[in-house]
Amino acid sequence: MEGEINNLVMVWITVVASLCYCHTIGKIITPGTTRLIAILPVILIFLVLPLNLRTIFLGGPISFFVAWLANFKLLLFAYGKGPLSSNPLPLPLSRFIPLASFPIKIQDNPINKQKKSLTNYAIKALILSTIIPIQQNKSSIHPNVFLFLYSIYMYIALEIILATVAASVRAALCVELEPQFEEPYLSTSLQDFWGRRWNLMASAILRPTVYVPVRTITSRWIGRKWAPVPAVIAAFLVSGIMHELIFYNIGRLKPTWEVTWFFVLHGICLAAEVSVKKAVNEKWRLPPLVSGFLAVALVMATGLWLFLPALMRLEADVMAYREMIAFIDFIKSVSNIELRMDKVIIVFSALRSS
Hints:
Layout: H1 2-28, H2 33-48, H3 56-78, H4 93-101, H5 118-128, H6 131-136, H7 143-173, H8 190-197, H9 200-222, H10 228-251, H11 258-279, H12 288-313, H13 316-353
Helix pairs in contact: 1-2, 1-3, 1-4, 2-3, 3-9, 3-10, 5-7, 7-12, 9-10, 10-11, 11-12
């Protein structure tokens, strides 16, 4: 535990130093290929930096924050686009670093946004706490039931981790941030699930880096009406590859590409949904309750088929359980040390007063 914390500190020192360099590059080199070449070493460093971490609760998020999101933001920054670019004046370093290194997006109209209640997160945290007894009784639970339960735990854990990071950054920057999740189980379609509810920071960065360029290029051949179809599939393909990278950083196992196929399949399904909507000019739709049920059912079924088995191959459940127990033991040991120190202080004070 202590060694992993030391590695985490080293990783963040490297990230901050690298982003300071990129911020300076942004001041002296105009957007374009030359700026890209200048920050390319940082992008390569960020790709391998998560390999210094071995735990799922540290290595997984750092892979997502740094190897994926930060790198894609830097690619946009190289050409004067994205959240790290600002005209006419560059972003201050105090805002550049958190925007680059964390999965956050500043709200444009914070007054019109409704925050999630603490009760919402408390209920989800309570549900997540059941992972320990479930893991302890894994052998007596049907494998498919266990995968279903773990998919719920994975969603809740991811939302809580991202919400915690966002809350810390919100307090530090004194700004309102976009939510990362919008209750995906309430989705009314695949387009609603992936575009407006699930892991919104990922879709927000995939849109300008993959979707828009592919749509612009393909519109020359197939027209603007149908150009979103290959653009959607390309975005999901890239998402799948980046998930493979995260999985490799967690388990150090050779990719089997099931995760990539999961996202490609959903890219094809979403492209088909968009195409049907365009073909009927959105005049006919299934009732939201029906289309939402079908969308969530498709996500769950394909997740149990392709996504979660790949995660279980890494023994992610065992790693998460072991790390949670280690964290609890660590908190207990720190509490015991503090209790002993309090007793020492009380005894010392009593001796001095006597």
